[in-house]
Design brief:
Two copies of one chain form a homodimer. Chain A is an alpha+beta fold and 234 residues long. The first copy, chain A, has two domains: 8-131, Jelly Rolls; 161-231, Winged helix-like DNA-binding domain superfamily/Winged helix DNA-binding domain (Arc Repressor Mutant, subunit A), CATH 1.10.10.10. Chain A is 35% helix and 26% strand. Chain A contains seven helices and twelve strands. In chain A, helix 4 runs antiparallel to helix 7. Chain A is elongated, with a radius of gyration of 19 Å. Chain A binds chain B through residues 75-79, 81, 83, 85, 96-97, 99-101, 105-106, 128-129, 132, 135, 138-140, 142-143, 145-147, 149-150, 152-155, 157-159, 194, 232-234, and chain B through 75-79, 81, 83, 85, 96-97, 99-101, 105-106, 128-129, 132, 135, 138-140, 142-143, 145-147, 149-150, 152-155, 157-159, 194, 232-234. The first copy, chain A, binds a DNA duplex (30 and 30 nucleotides) through residues 1-2, 160-161, 185-187, 195-199, 201-202, 205, 218. Chains A, B: InterPro entries: cNMP-bd_dom, cNMP-bd_dom_sf, Env_Response_Regulators, HTH_CRP, RmlC-like_jellyroll, WH-like_DNA-bd_sf, WH_DNA-bd_sf.
Chain lengths: 234, 234
Amino acid sequence: MKRVEVGEAWTGVADCRHCVIRDAVLFSGLTEEDFSHLHRPIDQITYRAGARIYDTGDQAATLFTIRSGLVKLTQYLPDGTARIVRLLRKTDLFGLEAMIDEEYPHTATALRDTEVCRLPVDVVRTLSHANSRLFNELMTRWHHAVGTADRWITEFSTGSARDRVVRLLLWLSEKEDDERCELFSREDLGALLGLTTETASRTMAELKRKGFISEPRPNQFLCDTPNLRRLVGM
Amino acid sequence: MKRVEVGEAWTGVADCRHCVIRDAVLFSGLTEEDFSHLHRPIDQITYRAGARIYDTGDQAATLFTIRSGLVKLTQYLPDGTARIVRLLRKTDLFGLEAMIDEEYPHTATALRDTEVCRLPVDVVRTLSHANSRLFNELMTRWHHAVGTADRWITEFSTGSARDRVVRLLLWLSEKEDDERCELFSREDLGALLGLTTETASRTMAELKRKGFISEPRPNQFLCDTPNLRRLVGM
DNA sequence: CGCCCATTTGATGTTCTTCAAAAGGTGTGG
DNA sequence: CCACACCTTTTGAAGAACATCAAATGGGCG
């Protein structure tokens, strides 16, 4: 990974009322009146690919909404082993733990250039008491986080290396409109699936040889989803 | 597992106001007034060891608080593979998904005789809008579920079989007062750690041989926690 | 062009799974 | 109370899958 000197840049003050992804974000349920109580501005920030957004143990004071890009959450074992526990993209919310905890439990890193909105936790707390739609939205986000974590356990941490890779490819394709699927480094692929970089690489190579995937551009894949699905019995 | 004809038995109507574990449960923040609005009674139910509490896809209409016992949540892959994604005990809440979803995403099974309180989801929903302490308590529970799921990924799904078993033993001892640690079947141990029954059994045998654990009674273990901790670098 | 880093590939060893069989425990019925 | 059946656990042997170490390849960038 290349060193990035200036990892983040302040992009401006968000105009939540006219946000292009407003339907999909946390504040979708806010009323004009709610917004009028929003005295503290919502920052918009851009992180370069590879930039650290926050570190495990950092003081947790803001939630993040992704406007564009891709973010990984990594958790470390005492022996230094890293495991990627979540992958976040457009409209996803992360750092929710700030609502409860003093510190972030993960390390958040931008995998591509990533635009986020930073929501101060006390703003969200205050609004969530007043606005029950926001409260529901928050619950939905928590629910979603648990559901995703559980998929990580069953789909990405169970079975053979090939099965795990295939399930991940299918999961990534799900989220794309077409059957393309942007991937990241082999090292991250391994850290996500609990495999070594080499095994991740070999498995991808095997899938290519057998024609289940092709790689028109580096790290961009075309998946034969029907046949991949058949491979893992989905 | 022995067939259980009568898996569940209604034990009575809960008296939440005078609950012995009241400090620790979801309703700890409720006021006298809140309780007076609680027209629908809270059922108390006992499940026999091995009894199914709910099944993946069942209509989700109640949350459960554990008064005593042990419950596993299992998730299934399309090919039939089962993976235990959570272990719940006294004062834990499960079935939270009922707040959002129509169906339970897991199968919940009692591992020992287990007493639960059943909280109708609409009761919790109504109360949570009126009582902000309950709302906070709910958020805390969600937070806890995510945190536990993440530990499952990093600690129980990463590294060698021995490391996983050791981390689980340490986790179970954490929750006990002494260094005893009740365990369940080897099959469940495997399903929890993403290993086969045989590997789980062999790993336990090896730990016994080396003196890290002893088994005074079947499925009850004494752990040499300091040395176990050293084994996995904690 | 040459350097740096990520990826790929190879060879080897370990770990885990698989299949199979034996041992141990528990409950039932004779 | 013993014998038998059934189920779980343990153990063994063989093979497959994955990790590890090492080296080669290839792409991007100064």
